[in-house]
Amino acid sequence: MNALARWLQLPWYSAERVQRYFNAGMQAILLLAALLFSLLMPHDSGAHIVTLILVAASCAFNWMFVGARWLLVARDANALQLPHSHQRVASALASMATQTLLLPTVLLALLGLPALPALTLMLDMTAMALLWALATRWMVPLLGFVPAALVLLAGPAGWPSPTDPKFTLLGAELAALGLAIVTLRWRALMRADETGFASSWRKPKIFLLRGQLGMQGLSAGCATYRNPHAGVNADGASKIRLPDSTGQYDVSTLVRVLLGPPFAPRRRTGGDLRYWALGAAALLLVEFAAWLLVSPDTLRVLNAMVLLWTVMLAMFLVPALASLRLFALFGGQPAAAVALLAHLPGLGDPSDARAMLLRTTIGVAIRWLAVAVLAIVALWLLLVGAPGFVALLLVAAAILATLTGASMLAALSGARLDRGSSHDIMRRGIYFALLAVLTITSSVALIPQAVALLAMQPAATTWADQHPWIPAAFTVAWSALWVFALAQLRRHWRRFWRRAHPFLQR
Amino acid sequence: MNAMLKISAGVAPLQACGICKRYDDRTALDTVDFALPEGAVLGLIGRNGAGKSTLIRALMGLIDVDAGNATVLGEPALAMSDAAKERLGYVPQDPDVLGWLRVDEMFALLRGQYPRWDQEFVEAQLARTLLPRDRALGRLSPGERQQVALIRALAVQPSLLVLDEPAAALDPVARRDLLREIALRAGESGTSVLFSTHIVSDLERVASHVAFLHQGRLLLQAPMDDLKERYARLWLPSRVAPPRIVGEISRRPQQAFGGWSLVVEQIDGHWPEATQQPGARLETLGLEDLFVEIAE
Amino acid sequence: MCIVVLIHMDASSLTIAPGAPEPIYRQIVEQVRRLIAGGQLPPGELMPSVREVAGFHAINPMTVSRAYSLLEGEGLLERLRGTGMAVAQSARSARPEAERMSLIEPRLHELARAARELELPASRVLRRLDQLLENGE
After folding, report:
1. pLDDT tens, residue by residue, A447-477
2. Least enclosed by CB within 10 Å: which of A398, A433, B88, C86?
């Protein structure tokens, strides 16, 4: 038993502790949501696709941020001449596959869902995730559009949906192709010289994750505080824009620049532009293909889905990254920037400095949130047009703002980044994940248009139609979450104001 | 100059009283009393993990302590006024700071905040050290980053200069330059300097005072010359542990010698009586030996 | 009486060993004392400034001024108005032999102890010392 437990734990040790807990939490939530969907969803609507998507997403998430890191472990073990390293890596990957692929498959089969198509879908997602991690950085934005392209092609080409048993063969072929490419790429990278790449632009994504706090690797633009290359682009130029060079800055600019990305004003560099341009080009290509292949109505739905998902992801991601950065600055190893701020003349009396710090950190995150929410509302009303969702979104955004404020205040008042009995970061990650899941499930449960969007078909019914108690249950859940978020905000707000000065560290 | 560190309250540029700091189950600082005399260059020495950085950060008002208080230039460390901050130069141990700024941008950004900023000094140092001024700080080597941080701290023309392991990342030439700069600043501008290190030879050159930190306790705090003259190693041949003697600082058994080696202190200009015992031998100690003897 | 080699005194003429058990100020005092006693530093010879010595050896200026003050107290150096320190006129160039001998006495004791501990025959040690003194090696 002990050996088995060790084998089961082994694959997760390639990632940092925070990343491990975050992954475990995400997986638990996604699988639970998948289970709920499969139990409550009307069986005839074909909406099991939601269950499958959730399961596959959890699987992809694990392989992107934990599984792929075994390449780094394998390389390092090789370099250190550790004995038996090949067997260890193989064993870890086998354990990972057992937990992320076999286990969910068995569970789905026990629930009476089509397990084989699910397994092949998960294998496809695994291959995608590994390709994402092993691909050169410039390919990463292109890879993001592969699933959308496949979905697009599926209709005209007559490919079966993943809920269809006939999907198994096609999915297996795709997975075999993907995994073959992954294997070749892995073998090539095992021998590649990590320092030999001309620029980070040409480096495989996985090497860029090295030394970064895993979660912050979610965004290539926002590396960790400890990484000295944070905020520096591939050519060594700074990404921060200084308003002018006269040496007279207003103090809030000064504070923002010292806090660094993502709070500092950014300078658009060539590297960033190339990255976005590639993404936009890929998007246009997909759009063009879609315009050729599908009917205008489907196209509208598709666009709405892609745009909404992107903005929603950004809405969640940016506050999360901003919080993480604050955790790194104030709760981790002593950061020199905070010491500099603590000793910087001209910030005014302590309460002025506090207000300034709040404006430049939480203020930036909340402003971003507001812009994202406005964008989502506008897109929704323009493309879908069901006001019920707008109300839901506003509630979700209010809670998100509260949670963001609470978690940033927790970071500013010295919650710990690395460890400790409370595992602050993990807990906070889970709150955000809970909110995300609640938003998605509520949308699907209460708003027919959302089901239509997710299932890509006109759905007449929602859960709420089938189970009249559902709206009440969601109201209770939302209220509970909001009360909880407000309590958190209040607690950390008080702690923040009780400190001797705002730039204390652990 | 020969006086021990007995400075009346409020005069010392840096002072601490009864500082305690615990992290989880580990005591980082255990009731530390500390004073940096005006115009002194005090070398804080201790093994890795002795609590040097924690003590410095507590003195600088960067962490909350569990007990005790610290004053910087006569003001509470946790509530310094701008007047005090303008006269303070501090370089933390790992100046990973501001990797996203160019060297010249960093100086441009800060100079507006310090009324006594010495841009000529910055220019001269940049020219002399050949630091690339248009490179992002994140792209510099650790030693270059350390140099930039030191230039920044010195450019404010501080009355109090606090450097946490300033020499760790520097090459020998840059290290010697830094020591020279510290020494001359102290001698000519009256700058009080606190620096931590575990490179004893650095300390021996420039320090006028030495403080030993060991396992969170300040074992010894004295003017450098006193330390060399007033402390010595006493070899006592004895199979059993001798009773604690007056003036004893530390002791450890010496198997090969068949007895004990003690670090003893002169009291009122006299060595302890135990030095007269048959077989006892008194030996002068260099700072490094003293450090090893006490810290082991 | 052998020929006295006069030296031009600058910061580099002093040898500083920071790691030695002897404090740096003492090292300076001893060296200047010996140089004056031996007549290599004649009266009136200008001493390097505190800043020069401190800067050259990267040592604390206070240590240097402490050494100079002690030497001034002994009457070996005198403070010139505006130009720093010089070897005092009263510090007679070559001291009586007995006085000079007393300066080397502690080192001879040390040498004798080391020779005894190593059980070296006195004649052998003396012969070698003779050689060293002759050749100025």
Report:
1. 776 666 665 555 556 666 777 787 888 889 8
2. A398
Size of interface B-C (CB pairs under 8 A): 71
Q: What is the mean pLDDT of residues A95-117?
A: 86
Cβ atoms of A218 and A321 within 8 Å: the answer is: yes
Per-residue model confidence as pLDDT tens digits over A396-409: 899 999 999 998 99
Contact B186 C60 (CB under 8 A): yes
Provide, as residue numbers in chain B, all residues whose Cβ is less than 8 Å from the Cβ of C65. 187
pLDDT (0 to 100) of residue B62: 92
Q: Tell me which chains share at least 3 CB pairs under 8 Å with chain C.
A: B
Phi-psi category of residue B205: left, alpha or beta, with phi > 0 → left and psi -120 to 50 → alpha: alpha
Nearest CA-CA partner of B161 in B5, B33, B8, B14: B14
CB of B149 closer than 8 Å to CB of B97: yes
Q: What is the pLDDT of residue B32?
A: 92
Per DSSP, the residues of A402-447 read HHHHHHHHHHHTT--SS--TT-HHHHHHHHHHHHHHHHHHHHHHH-
B89 Cβ neighbours under 8 A, 6+ residues apart: B152, B153, B154, B156, B158, B160, B161, B162
Interface check for C73 against chain B (CB to CB < 8 A): the answer is: no
Taking a C-beta distance cutoff of 8 angstroms, is the pair A170, A235 a contact? no
Tell me the per-residue pLDDT of C58-68, one tens digit each, with 9 for 90 and over.
898 888 999 99
Q: Can you tell me the distance from the alpha carbon of A207 to that of A24, in angstroms, rounded to the nearest whole number?
A: 23
C-alpha dihedral over A117, A119, A122, A124, to 10 degrees? -70
C48-101 pLDDT, tens digit each: 988 889 988 989 888 899 999 999 988 888 888 777 888 888 766 556 777 778
Phi-psi region of B10 (alpha: psi -120 to 50; beta: other; left: phi over 0): left
Residue B136 touches chain A, beta carbons under 8 Å? yes
Cβ <8 Å between A239 and B100? yes
Share of chain B above pLDDT 90, in %: 32
HSE-CB of C131 using CA atoms within 13 angstroms: 6
Note the Cα B30 to chain centre separation in Å: 17
Residue B62 near chain A (CB below 8 Å): yes
A206 contacts: CB under 8 Å, gap ≥ 6: A68, A69, A71, A72, A133, A134, A189
Contact indicator for B218, B211 with CB cutoff of 8 Å: yes
Give the confidence band of A234 by pLDDT, cuts at 50, 70, 90: very low
CA of C62: which chain B residue's CA is closest?
B187
Look at A346 and B97 and tell me if their CB atoms are within 8 Å.
Answer: no
Cβ contact, residue pair B183, C54, below 8 Å:
yes
Q: Which residue of A has its CA nearest to B82?
A: A345
Using a CB–CB cutoff of 8 Å, tell me whether B284 touches chain C. Answer: yes
CB neighbours of residue B203 within 10 Å: 26
Angstrom distance (rounded) from CA B22 to CA A463: 54
Taking all residues of chain C, what is their mean pLDDT, rounded to a whole number? Answer: 83
**Rounded CA gap, A125 and A344, in Å?**
50
User: What is the DSSP code (8-state) at residue B167?
Assistant: T
Q: Which of C22, C50, C51, C63 to mutate to test the interface with B (most CBs of B within 10 A)?
A: C63
Residue A491 predicted with pLDDT over 80: yes
Half-sphere exposure of A212 (CA within 13 A, CB side): 25
Give, to the nearest 10 degrees, the angle between helix A251-259 and helix B103-111. Answer: 140
Q: Any CB–CB contact under 8 A between B167 and chain C?
A: no
Whether the Cβ atoms of residue B40 and residue B34 lie closer than 8 Å to each other: no
Instruction: Tell me whether residues B62 and A345 touch, CB distance under 8 A.
Output: no
pLDDT for A483 beyond 90 = yes
Average pLDDT of span B234-256: 79
Complex ipTM? 0.87
May I ask the CATH architecture of the domain C11-87? Orthogonal Bundle (1.10)
